Amino acid sequence: MRKKALAALPLLKTKKKKIVMCPQVDGDTLVLDVWADATEYRGRYCMKSNGEYMALIGGVWQQRKLTDLCFERKNCHWNFGWAGAKCDSAESEKVCKDFLATNDLANGGRIEVAIDYAEARFVADKRHAAIERKYKKINEVIMADVPPLPDGLEDWAKKVVFGGAQFWYPAEGAGKDMYACTACGGVHKKQNAKHGKMYRCCRTGMDVRMDKLRCSRLRHDYAMILQRISGERCVARHVKLVSHWHGNSQDIFVYERCRLFLGKDGFQRIYHGQICDADEFEQEWYDRNPFNQNPMCGFCYPDGVREALAGTPYAHLGIAEMAEKGWRAHYNSIMYGYSVNGVFEYLAKGGYKRLCEETSSWCGGIHMDAGDGLTGALGINMQRAHRLRQADGGRIYLSWLQHEEKSGQKVPERAIRFFEAQKKVPYDFAFILPFMSPEQICNYLQRQQKETGLKVDEIISLWADTLHMAKGLKLDVSDAILHRPRDLRLQHDRLVAKVNEVSAQEQEAEYRKKFPQLDKVVQSLQKYAFSDEEFVIVPPRRIMDVLLEGRLLQHCVTNDRYFERMARDESYILFLRKASAPDVAWYTLEVEPSGVIRQKRTKFNRQEKDLDAAMPFLKKWQAFVKRTIGERERALAAVSAEKRRAEIAQLKRDKVVVHGAAENGRLLADVLLADLMEGA
């Protein structure tokens, strides 16, 4: 744009009020002098015939829209009509319209709208052109250095990646009980063969899975190919490998997902495929990721790995060794954390296959300080490291060996394999390990499984709860009768009864001392009373009422946190009962001052189907509360809602899990959100 010439044009003035535009045309440029109330000069706006625009404000050229001058705001998107912007005269308006129409910039009848559209179109075209240039540079310049995929990739995928994906299938036209084997290509007789069972191929000696339903099968996996490119750079190409068996023939399809360019200083740039499931010739590349095509855990093509990584920080991570052995791992994660992942070279050379795969996919990893050997990084001695390698153990196996190292308690192979199957680490048994050895824990869990029919997770939850209650009652949990009962369920129920037998009067006195204002808060809850023909909301009249409710329904309402919330007016405890039996405990509600219901629970912290009938009543009650509460309750409700949201967010971050009851194993945050009833 000819800035000097446009700035030198004579200044057009106006006598009209409000915001006025005085136009003139200079060559291929429309020039508008913008005034406010005929006295305040806002600046000079210029637009070329192609839509390019700039503004001269206070003697400085800026990329500003016409609306910015009219409203004196940057990046203003307000409607022109609000400012009453107009041309100086009918002749001035004709000058603008002729310029816009002649240069194909007109849009609608109003000049301001046409200019606004022209600005938007120019910015969009400019952005699109920049994207096109960048797209062309990536695909035609940067990707031109990437060599083709190796010729031996498909054969390697068949042998290493999908070598175990053999199967039997019905041999067409060969007769009954005749099955073709993809491992050897021959036809064999298998009488009474069962679908999904493994049968050995007599020609190859391989165990092959029986598939009586189909003669074709798809399977996919992922791999990384490392290749040296120009200069000191290499590229890590992450691909999806698809194996398609049809009859006795196997086809391999290779789809590129992303390319990571690496240099002597490490990671440089990543480009993602813009087409889902496209090969190297069809794929288009950009730095956006529309299909979430990221590096995955998989294999690494071994040819050329050492040459590609030479001179980079990734050369000593054991990637070449793992690739040559055909190990699965999250190779990208290993390279991403190269500064703390020196342990992988030791694991790869030592033959720790499963630990390599699990650790590479684990965000925590195994950190290795300078001077630490493999045993120092793993936290075990050489004998246990040898045992770990012999067993091809993973993270759980390692955690039990580390426990053995620290505690001196022998952990038998059988026990570790059981804990691996149940995905349990020593931390899961922190409540009982001071009193029982891992072998005893394993035996006890297996016996309880057999006698109760419960899952291991349910048994652990019940067990931990039992010991927690025993400690709360000041019982000697070191006694085997308490920490290792023959009938765990019976012991749990007995302790629940003992906990509920604690004097309600003593509890009331304790809470009254702990929360002096609690009595006053409880007595103020009568304003929440409500009833109809079927149901009634009963507020407690004293602290004792809440304690008795908790004992009758055997849930957690007697917990300190509920009384603490009541004392500070964050939430209240109310009783939902049937109108036909208003004195009989049914459901307990935790509500906020505005009537928002946080929880509604009956016996043993459960929700039953009978609550559905009361849901319309609860909505009526919420509407009643909304009409009757005052400003104080509304202010308290706002604070309560904020605390509730913060608490749920924290529970999500901590991934707190519910133990026991119907929601066992679910995230506590999800349970609370599902129970939340905010009303209209």
Shape: flat
- Give me the side-by-side strand order of the main sheet: 5-4-3-2-1-6
Q: Give the number of DSSP strands.
A: 22
Strand percentage: 15-25%
Average pLDDT taken over every residue: 88
Would you tell me the structural class of the helices and strands?
alpha+beta
- Share of residues in helices: 40-55%
Poorly predicted runs are: 78-83
Oligomeric status: single chain
Rounded radius of gyration (Å) = 37 Å
Describe the structure.
The protein is an alpha+beta fold. Helices cover 40% and strands 19% of the residues. The chain is built from 26 helices and 22 strands. The chain has a six-stranded mixed sheet. A six-stranded mixed sheet has the order 16-15-14-13-12-17. A hairpin with a 3-residue loop joins β2 (29-36) and β3.
